[in-house]
Amino acid sequence: MLSKILDGKRKSSSRRIGNQCRDARDWAGASDAYTQHLEVYNIDQAIWVQLGHAKKELGLLEDAARAYQTAVDLDDRDIDANIHLADVLRRLGDGEAALAVYERVNNIAPNSEALLHIRSLRKDSRATSAVGLGTGTTFFAIQDLFGYLKAHVTMSGIQRVQAGIALHAIRDPNIDVRFILSNVGSDIQTLPAGEFWMVDNTELMRIIDYASGKNVDHETLRLMLISCEDGAERVRPLAGSTVILLGAFWGLGNSVQNFVHSKREGVRIGAYVYDIIPVTHPEFCDDALVTDFSMAICELCATADFILTISDATKTELTNFIAKNRGRAIPMATVPLAHHLTRETDHSVVWPKQLSRVQGKRYVAYVSTIEGRKNHLYVINSWRRLMAEGVNVPDLVFVGRHGWKISALTDVLKATNNLNGRLHIAHNLSDGELNAIYANCEFSVFTSFVEGWGLPVGESLFHGRPCVAADTSSIPEVGGELVDYIDPFNLTQGVEVFRKMITDRAYLRSRVEAIRDHFTPRTWTDVGADFLEKTKSLQDVNVSSFSMKLKEGEAYTLKAHGNERVNVKTYFHKLSRLMIDSEFFYHKEDHGVWMRGANPSISIATEAAPETSVLVYMRLSIAPGALECRLTILDQMTDTETGSIRCKDLSQEGGTIRLPAKVGKDGAIHLRFDVTGPYSGMPGDKRDFAVGLSSIGYAQPQNITARQELLEVMNLRDLAAC
Q1: Distances from the Cα of 594 to the Cαs of 560, 584, 687, in angstroms?
Q2: 642 vs 356, 447, 639, CA distance in Å?
Q3: Which of 23, 427, 582, 647 is deepest in the core (most CB within 10 A)?
Q4: Identical fold at 2-109 and 132-334?
Q5: CA distances from 245 to 182, 249, 412, 417, 451 (A)
């Protein structure tokens, strides 16, 4: 009995010490403590996994594999243990064993990361070589659509637009349309610059049909997306083809930066622009979005050969933005959106369970994301004033997720107990449930300060329901004379319009009759046909020239801007994010970017003449698990080694280095980084990196001023900027 107690205490002590060492990143100590613990209690599956982590961090991959294998033997359905085992086996070069483990993982739970590795290890030609498609091919970039559907069970505005146009394009026999993703699953396997994943059109149609249906199970939808990604093949758009950014062009894996290489190879770039609100009305947007969008719209204006907009208002705003920043004129056309939801044939009406208290009552609906720009507070304050005057107001129904800048709204709702129970909020409704909300409301409201289109106004008219909407931006393009307009800054006017809609039943009936007699809905068939017709006409424009080059003595930084506002006027003509070309970068962080793998390479366009000898200045970061490695940098132009240094020494000396290089015939500097020696990743981080890049610049040896400037920029910080 005593021996068992002592064993238990020893077990508890060793395990605790191992965890403490792990948290302190003392991998040798963790390994020793976990080993001691497992000698006493060798069926502790979780600690076998932790021992594997410690061995891997120490670079002892074979020992790590044995530990992970033991963990899997104890619980072969542990996804985490299986993935770590497969990863180590792959790094050890045992592809056959790694493949078997990845297949076991995927059988337990379909997994996008596992699917990527399965295809690669099977030497699937779709994953190992790209098909080239050129003149006559139109590619729609839809990475953001897939990302959104993996995270949400229902589609919002931009996703509905993409789905509607995609369905029409696939069914049009007169266009060779393909749909591409920038990456599939995790970003472990990044394709070479200029290559993408092309999904099957039929599978995409099946996904859209399901996502637009009455009953959507999110796990089923997610597995459909993963399966579609698994069937994707590598493709390289060639000169004469066209890539259209159908959704986001400012991020979400679909940013302009992904298509610069294609642009340089003669691929025509188009985009569908919904609005430019983050630059015209930044006060309504999250600071991070303002930063990303401001940079992205400048980059789009430099690369796009043509642009389609969803409204004349957006077209006017974009034209003015370009003129204000002295940019080149870009061919543009307006393709207005449809007046209703994605599914033309789905007229089902299913009352949402979330709003069971409202069923059968009088109510007014506001269908929109609940954020500051949408001006929900205007409606709340109008209702409060009418209620104070004794008007028998209908209940209010807000349908939408919570977004930005709503603290003032939430304060009022909390103080009034949701208008004494007269306000009801729902989100994630299916199309059938939205149909029910529109079909049964007295009228709808849409008091947004600014829009790119205003789909809820069209949806209300489509369902035969009157709408009270703001008279700003694009909204009158949607509703025409069939909508009652208010000034979103004039509450008194709004109260009177609402009063008339609520109390004058004859007037409300007349508005219903006007919609019935005069409203002609614009369908997704109309939008799709219009979109493709205007795309075809704009594809005749010449591919515009594109040249972003780094000046001598100027440092290119890869650090994230964070929430810092971008000077648009400056960035419009100095697109630093587009000057460097590499498929080896992970996303930007405060220090810069980590470069993928042990042998990353970069190319940076310069203003120097071909074959000019230059000095390259770089500020690098070394991952904690790579300090014992050695870094060698090669000039790919001359195929010569420019220098080698111990990573530990580089880290201790501040990370700034200088090396000779020769400018290539294309005017770019081409460098390759070779990391030799085992290195380990960061805890919980599946990315593969050893070296990071913070900034880079170049100067000719005789240009002392430029060289001094680069040294100062990379090593000093202005006090005024602190």
Answers
A1: 12, 8, 9
A2: 71, 62, 9
A3: 647
A4: no
A5: 11, 6, 40, 44, 20
**Domain extents for the chain?**
2-109, 132-334, 353-520, 556-721
Helix then strand count (H, E) for the chain reads 28, 25
Q: Residue 633 pairs with which residues in a beta bridge?
A: 643, 673
Give the rounded percent of residues in the chain with a pLDDT score beyond 70.
93
Beta-bridged to residue 713, according to DSSP, are none
Tell me if 197 sits within 8 A of 232, measured CB to CB. Answer: yes
pTM for this predicted structure: 0.76
Q: Is the pLDDT of residue 586 over 90?
A: no
Alpha helices in 24-44, H assignment, sequence order: 27-40
By CB atoms closer than 10 A (0-12, 13-18, 19+), residue 19 is middle
> What is d(CA 73, CA 267) in angstroms, rounded to the nearest whole number?
51
Banded model confidence at residue 540, pLDDT cuts 50, 70, 90: confident
**Topology of domain 2-109, CATH:** 1.25.40
Q: What is the mean pLDDT of residues 7-34?
A: 82
- 12 close to 40: Cβ distance less than 8 angstroms: no
Q: What is the CATH number of domain 353-520?
A: 3.40.50.2000
Asked if residue 283 lies in contact with residue 459, where contact means CB atoms within 8 angstroms, the answer is no
Query: What are the CA-CA distances from residue 447 to residues 12, 338, 347, 377, 706 (Å)?
Result: 62, 20, 26, 9, 54
The 8-class DSSP code of residue 572 comes to T
Structural tokens at position 629? 């490695």
Q: Minimal CA–CA distance to 243: which of 268, 260, 264? A: 268
pLDDT digits (tens, 9 = 90+) for 668-677: 999 999 999 9
Separation between Cα atoms, residue 533 and residue 531, nearest integer Å:
6
Give 580's contacts (C-beta < 8 A, 6+ positions apart): 556, 558, 602, 603, 604, 605, 696
Find all residues with CB under 8 Å of 702, minimum gap 6, and list them: none
Phi, psi at residue 235, to the nearest 5°?
-140, 145
Residue 590 and residue 569: Cα distance in Å, rounded?
A: 24
CA-nearest of 677, 588, 585 to 628 is: 677
Q: Please state, in angstroms and rounded to a whole number, the distance separating the CA atoms of residues 191 and 175.
A: 26
The yes-or-no verdict on residue 520 having pLDDT over 80 is: yes
CATH 1.10.150 fits 556-721, yes or no: no
If you write DSSP's letter for every residue of 272-327 in order, what string do you get?
A: EE---HHHH-GGGS-HHHHHHHHHHHHHHHHH-SEEEESSHHHHHHHHHHHHHTTP
Q: Report the topology of domain 132-334.
A: Rossmann fold (3.40.50)
Q: How far apart are CA 675 and CA 9, in angstroms?
A: 44
Parallel, antiparallel or unpaired: strands 131-133 and 306-309: unpaired
